Hints:
Helix content is about 40%, strand content about 15%. A seven-stranded parallel sheet has the order 3-2-1-7-8-11-12, sandwiched between helices. It has a three-stranded antiparallel sheet with strand order 5-4-6. The chain has a two-stranded antiparallel sheet with strand order 9-10. It is globular, with a radius of gyration of 19 Å. It is α/β, with parallel strands linked by helices. Bound molecules: guanosine-5'-diphosphate and calcium ion (CA). Guanosine-5'-diphosphate binds near residues 51 and 236.
Amino acid sequence: MADRRVTVLAGGVGGARFLQGLIEVVDPSAVTIVGNVGDDLEPYGLHVSPDLDTVLYTLTGRIDAEKGWGVRGDTPRALEQARALGAEAWFWLGDLDLGLHMARTEMLRAGLPLSAATARLAAAMGLRATLLPSTDDRLRTMITTPAGEVDFQTYYVRRQHADAVLGIRFDGAEAARPAPGVLEAIAAADVVVIAPSNPFISIDPILAVPGIRAAVEARRDDVVAVSPIVAGKALRGPAAAMLQTLGHETSAVGVAGLYRSLAGALLIDREDAAAAGRVEALGLRPRVTGTIMADADAKRALAVAALAAAGAGS
Ligand code: GDP
Ligand code: CA
């Protein structure tokens, strides 16, 4: 198992926590992460890729584990100064975090594609796994609320995901191309994992890049998804609320419905063991296991369970 090549579609916090366990049970150099860029934004003229950064910080030991994002021990001095001088500055960025965005922005301005800038940052930070953005092209998640359409961070951070989500659109997706290496990593992997990330705003924007959904579907038998919904609730964030307002069952069965063309197996929590039959009826192999990543042991065990669930024969 140690040298199996694993490709993981991941958002931010849930995806990164899963990856933390995975790189302890397989050689990190055999792991490729396809990350979400739908949350990207350009506050203060800097290019911020929140989900790629959460993966980078988590896997290189810098993460603020309590919050799940940002750098441990970071300070908001720059932000406070900006606010004191009259800026609204509603998007929180720590001082150390700002440094990363400055480095990324400089690379992009010099003409590097996001994938190359990400690779440079990852190497400088000591990441041993391969981190790829889904695309180098501009793709932005847009959220339809009762008050109209807003960009993702206005919905998520500024309005604290309080609005009902009536629709989701990925601006730029039609013209986007998969970043170099993405389709190859999906095709060549022994196992493809859909991390316990938000299906609508972390996984869907990755799949919206033309070619990626078909590449995952072509590997369906070897694709394992992990439910981010446990006992009808999201462990954090708006995934459960979105299932409801977008017309799906608010449960692991709802997640199975979303992933039925993509994944051959779905890991569901022990609390949802009774749903296994309905997951199976949707055509996915249900695997009942502990899916709550409370500590390092739980993260490793979840990674082992995901790898074991791959392959139609297992
Ligand atoms: P974001 O981009 O930071 O919002 O992060 P993700 O989309 O990667 O992860 C958010 C999702 O992770 C939420 O839907 C959570 O329910 C899920 N999640 C967080 N922690 C856990 C956990 O310990 N177990 C499982 N199964 N899901 C989790
Ligand atoms: Ca995110």
